[in-house]
Every structure is written in C-alpha cells, then in structure tokens.
Amino acid sequence: MPKPIGIFDSGVGGTSIWKEVAKKLPHENTVYLADSANAPYGEKSKEEILRLSIKNTEYLLKEGCKIIVVACNTATTNAIDYLRSHYNVPFIGIEPAIKPAALQTKTKKVGVLATKGTLSSGLFHNTSKLFAEGITVLEQEGKGLVELIEAGRIDSLETRNLLRTFLDPMLKENIDCLVLGCTHYPYLIPVLKEILPSNVNIIDSGQAVARQTRAVLAQNNLLTKVNDTPEHLFYTNADVRVLKDLVDDPTAQVSFMDF
Ligand code: DGL
Fold it and tell me: At what angle do helices 73-86 and 122-131 cross, to 10 degrees?
C-alpha cells in the first residue's frame, strides 16, 4: 500500500486544501487530521500552536505519512520552521497569498482576512514586506468565523453579519483583492460573493499548495504513479458529521479519533 500524504488543520477548514490535493494527485492515499477539539488555533499562544502542531505531526508520522501538508495558515506561520528542522519528511505549508494579490491589484489596496495567530506572526510580516511594496495591506482578524464554520453554521445570519462588519471598512478603503488567509474561509466564498462587489477578487492558496505538494513529491521521488483506488482517511476529535458534510466525497472514510 503506497504511503499516504498527511494533512492536518486545527479543524475542518483544511479540507478545502485536501480537495485541491486530491484533485491534483488522484493516485495518492491521504490521511487528514481535524484537530477540532482544539480549534480555534488562532487565539492561542505561539507555544501552544507549536505543541499542537507537533502532536498532529507525530500522529501522521505514526500513520506512515511520507509528506505532511500543514493545511492551516496559523500552524504554518507559527510552527513550520520548527517542524522542518525536527522531522525527516518534507513539509508543505500555507500562507496568505499576498504575492498574487499584490500582482493583481489595480487600486493598490489589498484586504487580508486571517486569524490573530497568523496576522501576528513573523512569517506573515516578512511576506507582506517582501511582496507588497507600494501596496496598502488592510489586515482584518476574522474573530469568530472559524467557530461558526466548525459548528456547521456557514449559511447563517451571524456569519453574514460578522463578514459585513469585517469587510465594510476594507471596502470603504477601495480594496479590489481579498486574500483568504485561513483554510476555513474558502467555505465562506458563496456568502462572500453575496457581500462583495464584483470588482473584488477573492484569492486563496489551495491550488498553489496542491501544485507545490506535487512538485515536492516529484523532487523527492515520492509520487505514487499507479493506484486506482486511493484511500482517504479522515479523523476528527470532535463532530464527525460537520467534517463529513464539508468533505462531501464518497471516497472519504470519516471517523472519530481521540488523537
Ligand atoms: N484553518 C486555520 C488557518 O488556516 C484556522 C485557524 C484557527 O483554528 O484559528 O489558519
């Protein structure tokens, strides 16, 4: 049985990344960990985010994973350097897509919606400085959004009201790109499209992460070339139903696991 790709997130949001990875790499087996019992990570200290990232990594390594996708901006920006230097498998991370937004914007104003843990990280600041010269980056903490998505309440009045509160000040400043800096947020895209004017592009990093995962597997000779019945295991330490509904894939085997 080919070794799987391991993917973890603070909860169900990283399934938005899993979908892109599974599309791009259709022969790979995958194991996904949703650490929903500890969500949101975004409000935790750097030390706590690191401790949880180590726990998730060690579980995935026990499952025999050959590469680990940290499908969480908060865990990437706070823990990936440590993970890369302490474990002997490649790690793929995800960060808010500032660079493509900076290349696309015409108004020179870009909004970033992300967690407190991501926005306060050194990695995020370095990326912003590097790629957004001459661009105004309007940062907004999406406080409360991860909790609503974890509760399966995406299409709710509360979600709409919260998003309006977060987006109105950015829209007044004339942003034309909104970077989704949290892997939970792509699930908000249908609601975001109702709220945002049509000139505002929504940018997320899911496809870029899948491309990078493929490239790193190829470089390391780790690609699975033949496997017509890939296995996709999903483990959550909270509500199985919310994870199952979001994954929405007949090949997914979703179970509860107290990891
Ligand atoms: N999906 C995580 C991210 O990309 C959510 C973080 C959280 O749990 O606060 O940042």
Answer: 100
What is the amino acid identity at position 47? E
CA of 240 to the centre of ligand 1 (A): 18
The structure's pTM equals 0.96
Phi, psi (degrees; rounded to nearest 5) at 6: -95, 140
184 lines ligand 1 (CB under 6 A): yes
Neighbours of 101 (CB within 10 A): 24
Domains of the chain as residue ranges with CATH? 5-94+207-256 (3.40.50.1860), 98-204 (3.40.50.1860)
Q: Where are the beta strands (DSSP E) in the chain?
A: 5-9, 30-34, 67-70, 91-92, 109-114, 136-141, 177-181, 201-203, 232-236, 252-256
Exactly one of 179, 182, 203, 254 is catalytic; which is it? 182
Q: Which two tokens stand for residue 126?
A: 């370095």
| Nearest protein Cα to ligand 1, atom 2 | 72
Q: Give Cβ neighbours of residue 63 (< 8 Å, ≥ 6 apart).
A: 4, 6, 31, 233
From the list 186, 173, 188, 162, the residue with the least C-alpha distance to 139 is 173
- What pLDDT, in 10s, does the model give residues 85-124? 999 999 999 999 999 999 999 999 999 999 999 999 999 9
pLDDT digit string, tens, across residues 52-80:
999 999 999 999 999 999 999 999 999 99
